[in-house]
Write a structure and sequence with these properties.
Length: about 190
């Protein structure tokens, strides 16, 4: 699986964040991850269920089959299907959307909390989070920063970001989100060194 952002795009994003942090009294962090969780139990669950169903069908079609052979067939199916279902695109397809969104949201919140704990000063904080596997995007800001503009402004930034990601332009979406956040922060939290 190729990296979601190239080295050149990472440098552009890093430069945009550095400019934002020079022009404002805010810290902005970006987290892009392929998946928010391993979802390790889903391949096993689906493989076991499928093997049980297939073994049941074989038992109905061939009732004379030995128990040992049926168990060997079932075990072989569980192993093969678990390996097949463990491929990332298949694994993600097996996980319900609500579970993927929940795990991505939890990871975004943990990342934001970790960023706040890493530098507990009074600066405004924003996290732009994207999980490509779950097709999930979130922008989290501290309470004071979030209250600077109406919720519609934050929703618009996220909607534009999601649209860019949908068209496979993750880096462009990140850069646009950073610039939108910069516009808010420059208005409400400009740097004293300006």
């Amino acid at each position: 699986m190729k990296a979601p952002i190239s080295r050149e795009e990472r440098e552009r994003i890093h430069d945009a964040i550095a400019k934002l942090e020079q022009r404002t009294t805010a810290d902005l962090d970006v987290v892009v991850t392929r998946v928010s969780d391993r979802y390790a139990l889903y391949p096993i669950l689906w493989a076991s269920s499928s093997a049980l169903l297939l073994a049941g069908i074989v038992a109905l079609v061939r009732p004379e089959m030995e128990v040992r052979l049926a168990l060997l067939l079932q075990l072989s199916l569980v192993i093969l299907l678990t390996l097949a279902f463990n491929l990332l695109p298949i694994r993600l397809a097996l996980v319900p959307t609500s579970v993927k969104r929940s795990h991505a949201k939890q990871l975004a919140q943990r990342e934001f909390a970790a960023q706040c704990l890493a530098a507990p000063d009074e600066r405004a904080r924003i996290l732009i989070f994207a999980s490509t596997g779950e097709h999930y995007v979130e922008i989290i800001a501290d309470r004071a920063t979030h209250a600077l503009v109406p919720q519609k402004a934050w929703d618009r930034i996220v909607a534009n970001f999601v649209a860019a990601v949908r068209y496979d332009r993750l880096a462009n979406g990140l850069l646009a989100a950073i610039e939108s956040c910069a516009a808010i922060l420059e208005t409400h939290r400009p740097s004293a060194a300006k």
